[in-house]
């Protein structure tokens, strides 16, 4: 459809300029809702910052759900693009701006073409980057009721432009999240023996936690334990009495998944005891692994017009897994080849990929409905 | 003098409620200036947030300077006292509220009694907690011109109430300050191999820096290297591309003092190279050691009415050393016995010590002038 | 064949009592050579401590090679079995005693039954546990000339008794080996600042090397870096000027394999520089991955009389891979279920497994020749 | 006395060639006993490898004991001197060869001159380098009975040739010793998750123990914790189930001295728990601080013919402190200026110092007796 590709690029750049972090997608969801309404799509708001669009055909038929995540990350953009984030400390560094724009483009095409029967649902989900993510709120609000197949489309810079991955079985890792608090005893920086130094304790802890992946999990089982943030102290001459760390664990195997928090506890208590400090862990089981349904995946593969590839699974997680617990589906990855990894301050995508993702949404929906 | 003791306690509590961190002592210095003016002391403002008071006698005579530091620390108070800080994130956790109040009390007494000859200068100094401290600004503004002796009085909780320390020679350590920046490569928390993890690098660095004191400095030379703050990352699922640390080094010996930044550089570059990261150190030579003049110290000792003690030197630093480079003097410590170390969020003093410090200022001034 | 099973158990126990570490298998190889000769097998000695047995049929036909490794490990046995090692510091803790005995049992059966045509070669290889292993010496001596298929049979305690694994494709990891020398400056334990402490440096290095697997290799790529030994110092009151470490790296992917020594170098030089020490790495590429040939593996699977299972690949390495570079083949694993892992001082096997391995050798040979 | 200086050098070189480690000084003590006997000194053997010489005057008078330690260290010599150690792995790297020779020289001189009254005792003590040292055996055997003053003379390379230090009060640190055993679970190097890796645990422990001196002891109190040896594992491809470390702690203050083993316990148990390993500490209180008696020290100072200096105390320990618990005395240090620290494999002394030490022994003895 003439003009849709240009719209998608324009929408994506608008969203890129105005990123909103997880659960704060007020302007983003308003923009999506208004755009859908202008396209003639039936709009509802399952939650405060999410949007559901529906195109219903005249007769009975299958229901296919297409999902995009709309939230940004708390990263200060350094990409240098013209349409860089205008909001300090927030950035679309994972491509959700593109996901949102592609799904809007698919809605425009499908609305113009008309849905003959059945239904297409457009799920614009908030809060994918922060566990427990927005998917469970959406499902609780009923967006998956009656859905026969669910699809999603992720832009992926490690994959070259022109390639599409739709892989059956294990595809994305379980993604869990944790917060650690180390409590010591604050004091004068020149009198360390009168304090319990939480900086020294936290530092040893970060090193000791590396043994989980390096020594304590079967090397044949993929696993990651990342400390994403560490914060302690406000002054050079004061020993802080508390240190806070946050992180994420990734795995596929359920036994490995449940072993990781046990090991963090064991290591955390041991290292803190060595320093005379105390340790507290808050571990949140986030997203299950994304496991693509073989039949639903084959359907995607049948409509791919570009180069179909089958890369290794991905240690990134996604709460798309929550939809897959409700209906068979597939999370396809569209090559958007760029020099920087996702979540990097200089992350950029090859915008030509937007047309591929848009088309894939449309083709999959038509295939299910046809 | 009747009532002065009550004034000192009241002033101290007022200041404790309204702490201002280093170089932001606007209300504090205004309060001091106004109080001095009301007492009939000649007032000037050497810098924006400091105050100089002068009481001049009729005839020629010695000039004695009495100094108090007036700034607070960036600590969230947890002391539970009635007059706790009303300013979030700021606290008088080192006793400077008391120092200020005691010197105001001395001014009130000396103003009432009259200065027969010579001059008493009251130096209310800003920014003692942050190097390079306020003392050098005060001296540049001329507060030490013509001064014959300079004295200060520090409340000290490790010392029991009722005791006073005035020790000749090495008394407080050199206090230097540094900032470290580790630069890696940000990335997705599930794909650590595509990033350079600055949290892991900073953690190993903190551990490795412990070898400076533990292994690389003569054990007979007192030294401390403290990392007072560490900050990296904003999200659990993003590997941060930068980590920032600040800290302080304490020593007495000049060779040890100059060795420490060299070792931080050596260790920092080595550990960062091991992680593929880069390292940058900004090291600021802060305060020289406080070395009390034997003659000036003997003068203090001669007027102490309480129990004179001679404890070990102190690893805390103070820019009182800058005044000692201009005139002979002594930094006396007044026991204010409390359960928590200086710079602790629950720091409290024994307020009875305020009377001792106030009296010491007055007695020393009279002794010099007499 | 009546009595063979008892012989195999007896031979295995004899060998268990008299373990010889890699490249020192003098008595072991003499025992094998004599036993084979008594069985009527043609015997030669490809190297000083290895043995080749041959049974040739009358007419032309395929040549099948069966290989057992015969060396023990430098471990002090703590198994408590009656026939425990009589040689201090040496132990058959990997099951090579059983491998040797099973292949002798196969030789006895095949010699008694007669080989109709073609040839069966019995390769009793020395030095499997120490890279570069004995396989390359054997091949250089010509043991693989004219071989059509090569098979081996490994007892495996993580696998239950009664199960056999013969898995096509990637089966065992590449196993590489390294030695690290850290050179500092020896000195008096009470004067650490006059020395460069290699114990402290080596300790930090071991911790820092954990980042290779935990942070710097794709979590989807299996990899292990183990420091198997660390040695420094002879006295509590002397700082040693040298520390020595040895270890092994395991991987499947060639890029990961070649990345590991680069990272060890990077980390080693960085950490040593942080301590003022120097670092030297000797890295030996050991064994390639064992990749079983699909056709040869299918042949094994067709004769397995027990439960055929398909477990995950194994991070252990084996220079059986060297034979697989010369002829298609398969390395089968026979369940010998026991409570302790291979290379553990209390390692024991379920001796019933010996009959299964012996029979597998015989059946495979007959299948190839038949 | 003509010739004594040459004898002392020759004796010292002979002893240097034939070092014997602590408690194995068989040849050394035999050599001393024979030499003394030839000089006409009354000889007895308080223990198997020590010697007591006595020269008694005719009349009553004071008894002065002169002590030398005679044992060597388990270090492989790399000094390159002509008379280097002929015994592999043993070396006089602390100067005890010189101490022994100097005291023999003093015996020769005093025997030739004759002792007018009272008595000179020559204590040739074994096992100074290994706590609990030989001094307590000597004292138990009665060598200090009736002694009025006790003196020793230590060659010291950090002190320039020509200088002598005899300092009243705190002079050498308390020297304590410890052994640590970490017990994990041995296993296959490629399967770290089935083992408990004692190398990784020991490495983290060594790093964590640095916090004792760096963070947990008053920086004004001199203290050292050195890990002198670490040993684990025999093969690169086996994870060892046990690691052993030995070390020494140095301090002056009794509270610090007793705090150190408590902290080693706390840190050891914490770090080991973090790895799932167990920890055992054997801590031996070795030598008390050497505190020189003011009167006895003044006596030494009065006879020094060279440059008397007053350096800082020394973190090295010596069981000379045991004698000082029995009688007042002084441990004098004689400058033997060399480029390498004591206990270094390339340790050498300036042999001209031998004459100074010999003379000091003689002069002190004559002063006491005179």
Description of the structure:
Four copies of one chain form a homotetramer. Chain A is an alpha/beta fold and 370 residues long. Chain A folds into two domains: 4-173 and 291-369, Aminopeptidase, CATH 3.40.630; 180-286, Alpha-Beta Plaits (2-Layer Sandwich), CATH 3.30.70.360. In chain A, 34% of the residues lie in helices and 27% in strands. The first copy, chain A, contains nine helices and 16 strands. Chain A has helices at 4-17, 26-38, 96-113, 135-140, 198-216, 254-275, 294-303, 320-324, 353-369, and strands at 42-44, 51-56, 59-69, 117-125, 149-156, 163-165, 169-172, 174-183, 187-188, 223-232, 238-239, 242-251, 278-287, 290-292, 307-309, 329-335. In chain A, the strands form four sheets. The first copy, chain A, has an eight-stranded mixed β-sheet with strand order 1-2-4-3-5-16-6-15. In chain A, β1 (42-44) and β2 form a beta hairpin. In chain A, α1 runs antiparallel to α3 (96-113) and α5 packs antiparallel against α6 (254-275). The longest helix of chain A is centred in the last third of the chain and has 22 residues, at 254-275. Chain A starts with a helix and ends with a helix. The mean pLDDT of chain A is 95. Chains A and B meet through β8, β9, α5, β10 and β11 of A and β8, β9, α5, β10 and β11 of B. Chains A, B, C, D: Belongs to the peptidase M20 family.
